[in-house]
């Protein structure tokens, strides 16, 4: 069975030594956030993931979910008790306000816990994850009455949440959505239509399921401007909060998928189900975007999470598997062979994964901190800066982390050789599970288009210009210092590639939008490499400081410095390739005759 | 259900317009090789793959193989009849000499057919593929008596073959092999030990299974120099060829794997089974290498094959799936949305796959032709050139084609969005099946080491020097011609990167072998990119000539020219990145403390 150990120590290092988490005590929910309390929370959460969730991961994959004749769905053995433990620990409502049943703690800590839970058992973690997303949308856009009626039970995990967007004819293009909402006399709506690919659409983990459903009110405009958001509870809820009648929503079937078998992916049929409008009519997409943005960060972290757990297992295997001898002579002369970690190419694979994981964790925590600042800071300018950066980086993190997370799961599997292809080691499950993260919540190509088509030009390019400025300001002093120069100078050069690419887009994509489309994927990855590089520079700086301050940390900090160096030498040079691809433009691909594909 | 159409037309173009297959009529087996006959053979083979093998691919995955209590193994429904049809068509012995039951045709044609069969049903194609590999080893190293006894039944598909190398403690490192061979009085051996991961180790497709087994004769030296090769038939064979008693070899269990469920991956137990020495004692690895080299090319082609079939399905889907609008305005204004092929990023993914497939097919056919020349030419110098090139390129093709084949299967799946993650579309099966090709027959890291550690330095670097010379000579006139320059000049620059990388290795790896290990994987991919680029230059040249000669082929040839251009603009620039990674050396990764991984 695969192992898993939550990276609590690394998370604390990133929070306090790199991101200066302690400086944000003025934000609501942060006042109690001493390093000691944070350590305690993360250790407790990590333990739950290691001891309760991880042991259910392989069985969850093997047993999967089952739909029964009455339309009910059962989750794999143990999921129910695990969900109860997860809810009882207060983890679902960790970042929700206390008045709505939450713990009122920073979203940053919820993000850390999401990583641990997704590493331990991604299919399981999606259930509370979707509840968190639905809860966030409700808290932002629901009426006070709706919040009181639904939020506490969701935050406390008695009820769960889902998001219902996709229909057979409409995935990316929500304008094609046909699910109908007919006004009823009591002010509610009657919802009819079919939704597909609904994660956690039906299950046996909670007493009720609160579906957030996009539908078109009769007579509403066509396209995305006629879409509204509705609450459709599985069981109707009385004014007193008591569960009432079963609503007209049911699971028609569950999908057979490549992975995440422990999560029920449902076809949901709405047959005149009673729904309650959330926010304004025809502004549903707006409200849903709150949930989607949070979900996108959550999915980004799934990429990191699977990369991390796959890494841990591959590193252990590489130290234990005896096969062949080091190129420089036996390192384990008394054994029948050397452990395969003596081989440079095995180290290359491990370090490629590690060099992603630690910086990606830093970026994920930084993004969550930006979300906390955007929602909780009293400083309007700080809020705007944080919001701009979060908007810019959310598609980048989603696209890059899930692409690299999947590649890393594949690399980790590769280290196992033939055993990696066998179910028993669990490595192939990580690959299958990681694969979905590149697809759902907007396929990665859509993230790239969102970045290039919307996030870059927004507000006259304010967010990207701020990113350039802030990164340049970070790097300049560090590149001038001999100790930090090896970690800062390469990123300056990569930043230069990013700026050239951005300039090229400004000059070539306005008049010819296909150039933006053709460049989008490479641009997303280019930005991602620069962001990871800048994070490594910050980590290296913190590692040097920590090492000077706490000599007993030298070995750990040296490992970070070497990983940073590895990133600069072997991973960052990719920015040049991305730039070359971007500036080659769209002409060749667009000239290709459709019938010749 | 996924579609599949064998690329017969493209194969013929590559054979006759690019590789000048007609020039090799002087080789034995080639005399009848007119384009018309070749077309007829490939069409017939393609049809068998399309109509018989492809329809069994998804059911084969879903049903898998089953081991019964008596140790027998049944293959998925339909496999037996399909194997009979495959054998009856003469496809197994296509390239085997007529005197041993084969068709005596070029291995080049067998290679083309292997691609088609692996696209249609990889798990199935492995059964005859292993028989072909075992047959080749027997024909090369077996005694005349052994050849007569076993070869015809194998070539005709009544019996099948396997290769038994791996043991629990020994995969890559065959020196650790412990399976024992005790001499018997009759000159045969008694084989005892356990082999794992034996593809097609037991099944119900043939009357007998001829296992080729590596074992150590009692008293033989330790390490790889004490390994011998044995024939261990499932049923002993009388001098008259009649099947006799069941031998002491049995399938202990079959593995649960990520993919290729239609192929039985067996734990094989040898309990004093009667075995017959092949070739010289203690020279078994040598004999097995014949099988392994052929198998490596076969596995390389599996990478191509899955990339091809995944491409075909993704291209079809991209033309049919209506979602969103083109960035430049509606292209299908009367429909609810445009087909997603209007999007540059979708075209990017399709062209990345296509630009690999067509050149990879050219390289695979060229490698097979080299094998034919190496084995059949009467010109010693031509034999040596072909053998050198084949030795150099075999690990490159295996490593690069299977890595890119897998990546391409993932890309093709991505084009399907959420539907790609659902079993029904078959796209996720291509990904799961393609994954094994990166692992078996020597994991790709081992291919890279074989290339850098053995193939490069062999004979004073004769093979790589010849590759440089021949590529430079191909490019020079084409780079001087305006029409072909766009396809030749970029490859010249990539070749320059390869030469720099080779020079760096010569200067830095002799004294420090870890530098070779650290560079190996990138070097393999760098060489692969150059080889694919050189093939695209040849294809472009042929396309220009064909277009001038046959104007009705213009549209098809223009597609090839655009694909070549796409390759040069977007894929070839990777050589610079690979060079940067190679020259960064091993220091950083080797300084990393083992306990810090």
From TrEMBL, chains A, B:
Keywords (A to Z) from UniProt: FAD, Flavoprotein, Oxidoreductase
Listed InterPro entries: Acyl-CoA_dh-like_C_dom, Acyl-CoA_Oxase/DH_mid-dom, Acyl-CoA_Oxase/DH_mid-dom_sf, AcylCo_DH-like_C, AcylCo_DH/oxidase_C, AcylCoA_DH/ox_N, AcylCoA_DH/ox_N_sf, AcylCoA_DH/oxidase_NM_dom_sf
Residue span(s) of domain Acyl-CoA dehydrogenase/oxidase C-terminal: 282-451
Species classification: Bacteria, Pseudomonadati, Pseudomonadota, Alphaproteobacteria, Hyphomicrobiales
Domain Acyl-CoA dehydrogenase/oxidase N-terminal: 82-157
Domain Acetyl-CoA dehydrogenase-like C-terminal per the UniProt entry, residue ranges: 469-592
Record-linked PANTHER family: ACYL-COA DEHYDROGENASE, BROAD-SPECIFICITY LINEAR ACYL-COA DEHYDROGENASE FADE5
Keyword Oxidoreductase: yes
Organism of provenance: Methylocystis borbori
Necessary cofactors: FAD
Gene3D superfamilies: Acyl-CoA dehydrogenase/oxidase, N-terminal domain, Butyryl-CoA Dehydrogenase, subunit A, domain 2, Butyryl-CoA Dehydrogenase, subunit A, domain 3
Keyword DNA-binding: no
Name of the molecule in the record: Acyl-CoA dehydrogenase C-terminal domain-containing protein
Residue ranges of the TM segments: none
